[in-house]
Amino acid sequence: PGDTRDRLLEGLNPQQREAVEYRGPALLIVAGAGSGKTSVLTRRIASLLASREAWPSQILAITFTNKAANEMRERVEALVGQKAEGMWISTFHSACVRILRREAEHFGFTRNFTIYDSADSRALIKRIVKDLDADAVGLTVSAVANKISKLKNELSDVESYARQANFNDPNEVMFLECFRQYTRELQRANAFDFDDLLAQTVYLFRAFPGVAAIYQRRFRHILVDEYQDTNHAQYSLIRELTRSPEPEALGPGDTNVRILDDRGSVPPASLTVVGDSDQSIYAFRGADIRNIVEFERDFPNTKVILLEQNYRSTQNILDAANSVISNNFDRKDKKLFTTIGAGEKIVGYTGYSGHDEAQFVADEINALHKSGIAYKDMAVFYRTNSQTRALEEIFIRSALPYRIVGGTKFYERAEIKDVMAYLVCIANPADPLALRRIMNVPKRGIGPATEAALQAHADRDEVSLRESMRSVELLGLGPKVTGAIRELVDLLDELTGIQEKTMVPNLLQTLLERTKYIDALRASRDPQDEARAENVEELLAVAKEFQRNNPGGRLLDFLTEVALVAAADELDDSSGTVSLMTLHTAKGLEYEAVFITGVEEDLLPHRMSAGEPGGPAEERRLFYVGITRARKRLYLSLAMTRSMFGDVSVAMPSRYLQEIPPELIDWRQSPGDATSRGGTQPRALNARREKFSYGGSLPPGPSATRPAIRQHEWANKVTNQVRDNGDLTLEKGDRIRHVDFGDGRVVDVTGAGTKRIAEVQFDTAGRKRLLIKIAPIEKL
Ligand code: ATP
Ligand code: MG
């Protein structure tokens, strides 16, 4: 055991060791990025197991993504040297689904409930808004959906909302009705939406102390990573789980002698949370930074441990991160240090356009790759998904292997949703949403009128839509459509009957054959349909893989897994590709080289954050999260013009760039350089530019330390006359000369008018894309 203990503490600094070995009711580890919070949590679990203080089944660890959960499980098992079955390491949502699958029967649901994703709940809300004509008082589908979600995260339900609603306000009255209807429909469909998974579990624990006691007794050690991003519902769940079970809730035989304290009652579970308030980036989803700030008050006798050494990044990267985040007020100042050394400077680049920026990123990735950094150790971050288009175009052209994390939306494709809807119908016969979706897919002659007749029958008899289909013969519909409905409902009932004894791939195969779903796609003349058929086959492959990993798994388990696939779960480290993802998805991850693109006003901070209280501060934390993902190399890039939704607009450097000490950034092309060669709207650009104070971070810009004369020169450079090449016509094969890049040959010309772009192979500077109108070039 001594050996194991040594192995578990090996390489840890004294604070980290303490965090692994401390025993007590509550432990709060607050520390900046990359200081080993997640690593310490992992070792702490291993230490509890290795010392036999806990059985695997007594541990509940909460991570931010399913992928992080899998990693943590693997590391714990490697450290302890054995499989730790029965240990719960999962996201909040997965843990709640597991609990609800066991306990839903207590409050009017059954264990085969459906999980509605946000698209499903929106579809339902849309129907309700339409039925109630909520538009008339100005209620939109989004407004209703957002408000319901917010209320659920605050653990409000229809009754509690009704108690404080203002009944003189027609808008509130209408919203209340929508909320009521929505709740009723979910219940009828035996379905939970995403927010329900948490809220209903909390409700379950509060309403049924006997049920709560099972879990309060079972979990002796609860550990939560990324605690700064928990919302009120998640916080409440933790709170419920860390109470002592009510003595009367403990049935005979329940008393586990091992854990009784000297008064004969079960002490509360011990709680460990780790977090960094500077990385709180989900306030818009109800995450409450106060949860971490007020932890000590909520959990008396809390031990607090601070970690200050960063093991991830070079000093230059850390200095940039520290300096950016110190601009947020209302935070505890903490300075991270590292012994890794200064490392390379941060590289800055200002592209003329998003494409130019993307080309720079691609060229650098190639160079880094040649210098020995694997593709999988590089990542490109952006604020919004709309930025991926330019990156993808260039990456494809440069033959760079890449992968968009969280953007692939496989499960959002229509054909996948269709097949999944069939599976949901099989698992949960009460669900009308799924049934409506597949009623006439593939086409079988069941039109909207027929569906309405079935629904009317269901409403009149207060039965499910599926039940109403079973008695289709009573409805007096035509013989053909009656036959089609009979055939569909019989098929669904048959598959529902065998789901528990059938392997998932076989069930799916049978379904596809009997509905002729793939055949219908293959028979179509639409070339898109062939791709759709392939996607469905891909789903079959997913099912096979699921079955390999979960030999005893059945349809319900498969549906649960699919419903919970979070964005970051699609990451696959083993694949040799560069990862592209949003800054939000990047949380908790690390890479050798990181590119943060679009470091511009309106993107970072995002335009939408301006009106939100605390918005810009949250955006700054997001930037901080991005910077601190980098181990050795950090690139910050922006573009002077950016085309979005077909419009080209002038972009401004992000205010956050000024917050990085200028000596840390090596500008390959500074905003000043790029502006002197213009943008597509020169006058507007210069007018805005003068108002913008560059601060010191954009060399050769002015800074407190630079002599005034330099500031003056620099200002001239920025407001320089914009170049205009007018009608310069270039063709493939032309030789040109560029001010910086030297001579080169035009290899392609695309676009029209003022947006014509030349792709040029320079003799020494590589391949570039130039906006002909404004590029500093001449024809030779
Ligand atoms: P974040 O705030 O970004 O989630 P974190 O605090 O969870 O970061 P970890 O991911 O646990 O930090 O650790 C960052 C890196 O430092 C990892 O690569 C980890 O393996 C390494 N590391 C942590 N502690 C040590 C240590 N004592 N010695 C060497 N490396 C360490
Ligand atoms: Mg972490």
Short description:
The protein is α/β, with parallel strands linked by helices. The protein contains 30 helices and 21 strands. The protein is 44% helix and 15% strand.
Describe the secondary-structure layout.
Layout: H1 2-9, H2 14-21, E1 26-31, H3 37-50, E2 59-62, H4 66-80, E3 88-90, H5 92-103, E4 114-116, H6 118-132, H7 141-153, H8 158-164, H9 170-188, E5 191-193, H10 194-207, H11 209-218, E6 221-224, H12 232-241, E7 270-275, H13 290-293, H14 295-298, E8 302-307, H15 315-325, E9 346-353, H16 354-370, E10 378-382, H17 388-397, E11 402-404, H18 414-427, H19 432-438, H20 448-461, H21 465-470, H22 479-498, H23 504-515, H24 517-523, H25 527-549, H26 555-564, E12 578-582, E13 591-596, H27 615-627, E14 630-644, E15 647-650, E16 665-669, H28 671-676, H29 682-691, H30 708-718, E17 735-738, E18 742-750, E19 757-762, E20 766-771, E21 777-779
Parallel strand pairs: 1-7, 1-8, 2-3, 2-6, 4-5, 6-7, 9-14, 9-16, 10-12, 10-13, 11-12, 13-14
Antiparallel strand pairs: 14-15, 17-18, 17-21, 18-19, 19-20
The structure holds adenosine-5'-triphosphate and magnesium ion.
Give the tags.
single chain; 780 residues; alpha/beta; eight-stranded mixed β-sheet; 21 strands; globular; binds adenosine-5'-triphosphate
Written account of the structure:
The protein is an alpha/beta fold. It has 30 helices and 21 strands. Helix 6 (118-132) packs across helix 7 (141-153), helix 15 runs antiparallel to helix 27 (615-627) and helix 18 (414-427) crosses helix 22 (479-498). The structure holds adenosine-5'-triphosphate (ATP) and magnesium ion. Residues 11-13, 16, 31, 33-39, 276, 279, 311-312, 588, 590, 628 line the site of adenosine-5'-triphosphate. Keywords: ATP-binding, DNA-binding, Helicase, Hydrolase, Isomerase, Nucleotide-binding. Residues 10-314 form the UvrD-like helicase ATP-binding domain. Belongs to the helicase family. UvrD subfamily. InterPro entries: DExx_box_DNA_helicase_dom_sf, DNA_helicase_UvrD-like_C, DNA_helicase_UvrD/REP, P-loop_NTPase, UvrD-like_ATP-bd.
